[in-house]
Design brief:
Distance between the termini: 46 Å
Radius of gyration: 18 Å
Number of helices: 5
Number of strands: 10
Helix content: 25-40%
Largest sheet: 5 strands, mixed
Order of helices and strands: HHEEHHEEEHEEEEE
């Protein structure tokens, strides 16, 4: 779980991290807002459709490959066409062409994902057909990133509330 494991271990315990894992194994892997905005933690999966996603059984542990793995761990890749191997060694990467074709196939307007730190809290890809949304400012105390929350109004207009990173205080030294 990337930096989340280290954060739980440092602040609380490995036991708490395991409990989070049990909860995550029960949660839906994707959501669809008004049939037009598709949301997943990671992103897209080769050949996916809504029938396959609805058929995913929960609770379960995440497999090392396949639809669920991709929905949770895939990443967009700038300048790439089609599908590629992930530097994370899990799921894969996809290009803007995959986003465009998936939006057309599923008749959706937007893909919303998380899964990676973005400097301003959100970042568009594929001519604004995909947005990466990251809600944790100052991620793990190691980044100076903003966080963001996306607001979707009744006519599906999206806006963002940006959570600025905390200003880190500099150490104070006593002069003798």
């Amino acid at each position: 779980m990337y930096g989340f494991y280290a954060e739980c271990k440092r602040r609380y315990s490995v036991k708490l991290w395991k409990q989070f894992g049990e909860v995550f194994n029960c949660m839906p892997v994707a959501a669809l807002i008004d049939d037009k905005i598709f949301c997943a933690h990671g992103g897209l999966s080769p050949g996916m459709d809504f029938k396959q996603i609805k058929a995913l059984q929960r609770p379960c542990e995440v497999p090392d490959d396949g639809l669920m793995c991709y929905l949770l761990w895939s990443d967009p890749a700038e300048g790439q066409n089609g599908w590629g191997e992930s530097p994370r060694q899990v799921a894969g990467t996809f290009g803007a062409d995959v986003v465009r074709k998936t939006c057309e196939k599923l008749d959706i307007d937007l893909v919303v994902r998380a899964h990676e730190v973005v400097e301003e809290g959100y970042s568009f890809f594929a001519d604004r057909q995909l947005v990466t949304l990251f809600s944790a400012p100052n991620y793990c105390g190691e980044f100076d990133n903003s966080g963001a929350v996306m607001v979707v109004d009744a006519d599906l207009t999206c806006s963002f509330k940006v959570l600025k990173p905390a200003v880190r205080s500099r150490p104070h030294f006593l002069n003798f």
